[in-house]
Amino acid sequence: MAAKRIARLNERTADTAPPGSSATQMRTHMCGELREGDVGKRVRLCGWVATRREHGEHLAFVDLRDHSGVTQCVVGGSVEARSEWVLQVEGTVRRRPAGNENPELPTGDVELADCNVEVLARAEPPPFAVDDRVESDESVRLRYRYVDLRRPRMQGNLRLRSRVLTALREAMLRQGFCEVETPLLWTPTPEGAREFAVPARLHRGEFYVLPQSPQIAKQLLMVGGVDRYFQMARCLRDEDLRADRQFEFTQLDVEASFVSASDVREAVTEAVVEATEAAVGERPGEVKSISWQEAMDRYGVDKPDMRFEMELVDLGEVFAGTEVRAMAAQCVKGLRVPAGAQLSRNRVDALAERAKQLGAKGLASFKVAGTRSGGEPVLESALEKFLSATERAGLVSATGAVPGDLILVVADSWRTACEVLGQLRLELGRPPVGTGGRRLCWVTDFPLFEGLDDEGVPIAAHHPFTMPHREDLDLLDSDPLAVRSEAYDLVLNGWELGSGSIRIHREDIQRKVFDVLGISPEDAEARFGFLLGALRYGAPPHGGFAVGVDRLVALLAGEENIREVIAFPKTQSGTDPLTGAPKPLSAQSLRELGLRVEAR
Predict the structure, then answer these.
(1) N or C: which end of the chain has fewer CB within 10 A?
(2) What's the rounded Cα separation, in Å, for the pair 229 and 544?
(3) Are residues 146 and 276 in the same domain?
């Protein structure tokens, strides 16, 4: 039937096919392509009915839509077509009558006239309007994702994603990287998150896991002499979902031999900058680099949002030897909130409560009301009367506050003071996603270990294959929490785009790190024997990185949730409303896999 229909169409349009086109084409142009330069051409369009308007019995207007845009088609007589029906329309391009132009459409100066319409597929009324101006419940959108994807916003996001992926790939190839695919059926790796297990039918009772990342595989590629590797890797982690996290995600995975940390950062920076330009038409500004210590001191987080100032200030000297008990602590940090004196009492109280929820003992607040005749600042605070004149002046001077500002102070351990004020800084000053420009920065020199577990054993901050700073190697025995790593993160507008590091390429150092982590030689051999064995066969110094593509695309698209830039995402509960996954397996499948499901 389809072949006969196409043959009839070819016969009907053979004499009027545009020059240079094939009469067998179902369409000669996209719906968003036609301009004044096309006036007089006989064209064929295919797409979905966006709207249909009938003017009496002798005239109808059909707005035909595809991913490129919309064209108005003028049909003589009535037309049998409803919203989201799929049509092929053949007609002649003409200028719209004077006064009927639509400046909101790129095709708004022209229309298609003398139209022949063929219905290619009928459609039930859609469950929601295929229009960006209408907000629909997300669960409904995901249940009918094939309809949701027709919306201009989603089409734009997917095509932006495609441009980003293309630019990333081209940048890596241009820099001499070789694209290599690594296995999806892999062995368990210690990277923090739970893994998805895959039962091995041919080896009953044994399992593969889906890789959290190709970390060990790409290190083995370096041992194998690949030298510069990359891939658009699919990674899977069984962890709680949120706005910037899905079970399955895509990353630009990179590894290179005989490189320093700065070499890796330069290669990744070039790829991300070019991808940004390909996506939005402009390159981001200067890509700065700061240490982890500096990021925590100035911004209170290890993924600083540099689109706005409001930096944390060290008030240790101001309150050195203070008699105010609330200010006597290991660390005293302050945050100036411009024009914050306008905040209501309830809002300031809520900030104090929020600080306690984040782990602080308390939050001191000072509204700068003005200055006295002698230049002494006037502060409004429950603690104001307990401060000396020197402390009041020092507080205002150190923070740079002016009348009308609010100063927030946390006195606690260094880590707590930084993290609490860092979070309050974001909540009070962070611009919305998609505004405030794009600020990329590298954060370097992370601690090798992030703390101790309940048994006093250090916990790896990244993964156990990260090279310690060479000048800190002696501290592995005496003070492991003071050891810095050759690890680095790339941050865009306060979102971590990814992490990387120089890897351990010497077996003796790798075994030493395993020992500090409480991994016995026997356990290390059982879990990582293949990696340790590879290190014995001449491993080059190497390092790498992984860029979270979903997060990068979401930020470039101005989206707050990566689900908006993934074609078929899961909900926050980990389900797929479209397919109904996850679903139980049949009894026969469970038997074949040697599995039994226990009742809850």
Answers:
(1) C
(2) 9
(3) yes
Assess whether 275 and 142 both reside in one domain.
yes
Residue 305 has pLDDT above 90, yes or no: yes
Q: Is 275 helix (H, G, I), strand (E, B) or coil?
A: helix
CA atoms within 13 A on the CB side of 67: 10
- As a whole number of angstroms, the distance between CA 6 and CA 22 comes to 12
Number of domain units in the chain:
3
Identify the H or E element spanning 13.
Answer: helix 2-13
Burial of 32-62, coded b for 16+ CB within 10 Å and e otherwise, reads bbbeeebeebbbbbbbbbbebeeeeeeebeb
Burial (0-12, 13-18, 19+ Cβ within 10 Å), 240: exposed
- Helix (H, G, I), strand (E, B), or coil: what is residue 377? strand
Q: Please report the pLDDT score of residue 62 as a whole number.
A: 96
For 441-493, the three-class secondary structure string (H helix, E strand, C coil) is EEEECCECEEEECCCCCEEECCCCCECECHHHCCHHHHCHHHCEECEEEEEEC
Q: What is the DSSP letter of 245?
A: B
Q: Are residues 20 and 85 in the same domain?
A: yes
For the segment 401-412, the average pLDDT, to the nearest whole number, is 96
Amino acid 12: pLDDT: 46
Residues 6+ apart with CB under 8 A from 469: 445, 448, 483, 484, 485, 486
Contact 265, 442 (CB under 8 A): yes
Whether the pLDDT of residue 509 is over 90: the answer is yes
> DSSP secondary structure string, 322-359?
-S-GGG-SSEEEEEEETTGGGS-HHHHHHHHHHHHHTT
Average pLDDT over residues 145-150: 97
**Inter-CA distances, 273 with 32, 168, 297, 588, Å:** 29, 9, 27, 51
Burial of 205 (0-12, 13-18, 19+ CB in 10 A): exposed
For residues 380 and 323, membership in a common domain is answered with yes
Average pLDDT, the chain: 92
Per-residue pLDDT tens over the stretch 425-446: 999 999 988 888 999 999 999 9
Note whether 106 and 77 are same-domain residues.
yes
User: Is the same domain home to 156 and 268?
Assistant: yes
How far the first Cα of the chain sits from its last, in Å, is 53
Cα 61 from Cα 568, distance rounded (Å)? 34
- Greater confidence (34 vs 375) lies with 34
Torsion of CA 268, 272, 274, 275, to 10 degrees: 140
> In this structure, are 105 and 192 located in the same domain?
no
Find out whether 509 and 479 touch, Cβ atoms under 8 Å: no
Euclidean distance between CA atoms 248 and 243, whole angstroms:
13
For 397, residues 6+ apart whose C-beta sits below 8 A from its C-beta are: none
Q: Which residue has the tokens 């891939």?
A: 231
Share of the chain above pLDDT 70, in %: 95
- When pLDDT is averaged across residues 247-275 and rounded to a whole number, the result is 98
User: Can you tell me the distance from the alpha carbon of 542 to that of 259, in angstroms, rounded to the nearest whole number?
Assistant: 6
Instruction: Note whether 233 and 216 are within 8 A (CB).
Output: no
**pTM (predicted TM-score):** 0.90
Are 445 and 469 a contacting pair, CB within 8 Å? yes
> pLDDT tens for residues 309-350?
999 999 999 999 899 999 999 999 999 999 999 999 999 999
Residue 4 predicted with pLDDT over 60: no
Which whole-number Å values give the CA distances from 516 to 197, 219, 450, 480, 535, in the listed order?
Answer: 28, 22, 13, 8, 19
